[in-house]
Design brief:
By secondary structure, this protein is α+β, with helices and mostly antiparallel strands. It has two domains: 394 residues, no CATH class; 64 residues, Glutathione synthase lid domain (Dna Ligase, domain 1). It is built from 19 helices and 20 strands. The strands form five sheets. Strands 3, 5, 6, 16, 17, 18 and 19 form a seven-stranded antiparallel beta sheet that branches. Helix 11 links the parallel strand 7 and strand 8. Helix 2 runs antiparallel to helix 8 and helix 12 packs across helix 13. The protein is globular and about 70 Å long. The protein starts with a helix and ends with a strand. The model has no long low-confidence stretch (mean pLDDT 92).
Length: 480
């Protein structure tokens, strides 16, 4: 449907311009916004978040497949986070060469040695997929990654349906506008945070958002904060330096920051090496992270869940018999999860890793080289992949990466609305994300849900990069 609209409007530049202005205004009206820093010395500016002019087509069967499997991914991540032996074996090679993952793993070990203070676990994750059209026939749903740390855009994507419904109505497509699904992901994430806060058991305690020093995506987070305030749950935004300066544990290991007891730490910062700064304070950011991990506060994610989301764990899960370990006597669940796996290959030292290197160097266009990093823009393709593998193939440095089959999604046509960018028809690729939430207390899973979806679209000229990286834009699925 969107393709047909685009075809009709391509010859009418004035109509495209008018629809784009309506889309931008509607986005701002409904809070689909980002913060822009014009320069270090100027005031902040608010503008619309980048968005497609029209919703993009997504096969209904694949969409509902992704939603259905999400509760199983929630369970899988939770089980991995509790399995210290599995994490030790899965990450043994990675932590010898990747200093960032090694530092995280050291915190994990310290927490286990001391004994976890809190039995309540809160998980907010997002599993990302593309539709692979590599073979003839129906496209197949293939997972790119699962984000267990700071899975973003649940807030803004809760408001984007209003934009595309309105645009389709203005374009004369009233019937199609009714096929844009409601998507209140922000409320879904807030529900899980609220449940963890409730189980913590102190109405005076706050939910602390651990955020970056400079935040352009603040409105996405504010949506979740507002949902918590609706439930009369107090939230505060703090940074690593705030925890370093004023954070402390009492004898019961309750966490206090600026004198306030913290029930839930919701990490929106701390997933990249550059998030951790060494400073002149008594504590540095790494010590602040350890303080929070040692505390009675519910962590989202806790350190085990953070490690469960690494690329190396994703690769190990694809090996024969591994999923069966976590879902014994549940072959249907194993099959549901495994059907979403793309090919994943180890780069560990030894014959298997050597075979992977040879395969990738022979046909680099068929693969993606992934380091243990989040945030978009880290993956390597084509000539870059080939160059890096040539450099590291004989050394242990190669163990910092995994190799994955390159997914070949079906291109779609759309117009990407970005600040100060020209209006033009672009050949685009779409990525579907599904939000999952769970809360466990001790051995009891008290909440396990699929909490909504996210569609991001980028020009096919870009191999990698998300919305935060300035490459992809927000979108909505129009189910076919």
């Amino acid at each position: 449907m969107a393709q047909g609209i685009l075809k009709d409007t391509m010859a009418n530049a004035m109509l495209v311009k008018d629809l784009a202005e309506v889309a931008k205004d509607t986005a701002l009206l409904h809070g689909v916004q980002i913060r822009v820093h014009e320069s270090p010395n100027s005031s902040e500016v608010v503008t619309y978040a980048p968005i497609t002019l029209f919703p993009s087509p997504v096969p209904k069967s694949a969409f509902y497949q992704a939603l259905a499997v999400q509760v199983h991914y929630n369970t899988l991540v939770d089980k991995i986070s509790q399995d210290a032996d599995f994490l030790q074996k899965a990450l043994a090679s990675t932590i010898t060469v990747d200093n960032f993952t090694a530092r995280l793993f050291k915190i994990h070990q310290q927490v286990l040695e001391e004994g976890k203070a809190q039995s309540i676990v809160l998980g907010l994750n997002r599993s990302d997929y593309m539709l692979d059209q590599k073979n003839e026939g129906c496209p197949t749903l293939k997972q790119i990654e699962i984000n267990t740390f700071a899975a973003s855009f649940a807030g803004l994507t809760s408001h984007t349906p209003h934009v595309h419904r309105h645009i389709l109505k203005v374009a004369g497509c009233v019937e199609e506008s009714q096929r844009i699904l409601d998507n209140n992901s922000a409320a879904g994430l807030a529900e899980a945070i609220a449940k963890a806060w409730e189980l913590y058991g102190s109405k005076r305690a706050i939910v602390m958002f651990l955020v970056e020093e400079n935040q352009i995506n603040i409105f996405d987070q504010r949506c979740i904060e507002n949902e918590l305030w609706k439930r009369n749950i107090s939230t505060k935004r703090k940074r690593f330096r705030d925890v370093s300066k004023t954070g402390s544990l009492d004898p019961d290991r309750k966490l206090f920051v600026d004198g306030q007891e913290v029930a839930v730490v919701y990490f929106r910062n701390g997933y990249m090496p550059q998030n951790y700064q060494k400073n002149a304070n008594i504590f540095n950011d790494w010590q602040a992270r350890l303080l929070m991990e040692r505390s009675l506060a519910v962590k989202c994610p806790d350190i085990g869940t953070h490690l469960a989301g690494t690329k190396k764990v994703q690769q190990v899960l694809s090996q024969p018999g591994v999923l069966e370990k976590f879902f014994p006597e549940q072959p249907q669940v194993v099959e549901q999860i495994r059907s979403t796996f793309a090919g994943l290959y180890t780069l560990d030292m030894g014959p298997e890793g050597d075979k992977t290197i040879e395969m990738a160097l022979r046909t680099p266009g068929l693969f993606v080289l992934k380091p243990q990093r989040e945030g978009g823009g880290n993956n390597l393709y084509g000539a870059e992949l080939q160059q890096v593998l040539q450099e590291v193939k004989g050394s242990e440095e190669r163990m910092a990466y995994i190799l994955m089959d390159k997914i070949h999604p079906t291109p779609v046509q759309n117009i990407l609305l970005k600040r100060d960018a020209p209006l033009k028809i672009s050949t685009c690729l779409c990525e579907l994300g599904v939000f999952g939430t769970y809360v466990r207390k001790g051995r009891e899973m008290v909440l396990n849900k699929c909490a909504g979806h996210l569609l991001r679209t980028k020009s096919s000229e870009h191999a990698d990069g998300g919305v935060a990286a300035g490459v992809a834009v927000l979108d909505n699925p129009l189910l076919l």
